[in-house]
Specification:
about 200 residues, Lysozyme, 8 helices, 4 strands, about 55% helix
Length: about 200
């Protein structure tokens, strides 16, 4: 890590050069902050139960007879958007005619789930979080993209876990309609969240 911008900013605030002791103390503080961030990132990684839950509900649908997978429209939305492929992958480059191999689907899943796990860890901050809670929240975020705006995140950060678990049930709509599949997924996420 380039520490020069930090030292320059603090030096500018002080309006003077550092003493050797101040340099050592500032270096130690930066090292401590970096170490805490590494520990937090390590502490928050998606577990096997979370991976299995996401894969169960996202599926790897539309496999062709040649083993390749093709994109399909969202079955719950009025306009078919977003188009999806593999393990629930969406994006501007996915639409009618998009075809991936199973290896592409699996690689995209690993990359996407790592990004979502990092976003959930960041949204939760230092709040105490069990593996089951973290896995459930990553599954929720993978499906909704709403970890930062959901009331359940705020309740979790406040340690109100029973109330947070009840919030999953509010996220069962697509295009204004309650969806049976989303209801079942949210029930499973809430159960995983409460499992510890």
């Amino acid at each position: 890590m380039n520490r020069k911008p930090i030292f320059d900013a603090v030096r500018g605030l002080l309006g003077r050069a550092f003493t050797r002791d101040e340099v050592a103390r500032l270096d130690a503080a930066i090292d401590l902050a970096l170490d805490q961030n590494v520990r937090a990132a390590t502490r928050h990684s998606l577990g096997e139960r979370g991976r299995a839950l996401i894969r169960k509900w996202e599926g790897c649908a539309r496999k062709r007879s040649d083993g390749l997978l093709e994109a399909y429209p969202d079955p719950g939305s009025k306009d078919g958007r977003p188009w999806t492929i593999g393990w629930g992958s969406t994006g501007p480059d996915i639409g009618p005619g998009t075809i991936w191999t199973q290896a592409q689907c699996d690689a995209d899943f690993d990359e996407t789930v790592a990004r979502y796990a990092a976003e959930v860890a960041d949204a939760l901050g230092p709040a105490p979080t069990t593996q089951g809670q973290f896995d459930a929240l990553v599954s929720f975020h993978y499906n909704t993209g709403a970890i930062r705006s959901a009331t359940l995140t705020r309740l979790h950060r406040q340690g109100q876990f029973a109330m947070a678990a009840k919030e999953f049930a509010k996220w069962i709509h697509n295009d204004g309609r309650a969806m049976g599949g989303l209801r079942k997924r949210r029930d499973e996420e809430a159960a995983l969240y409460l499992s510890g």
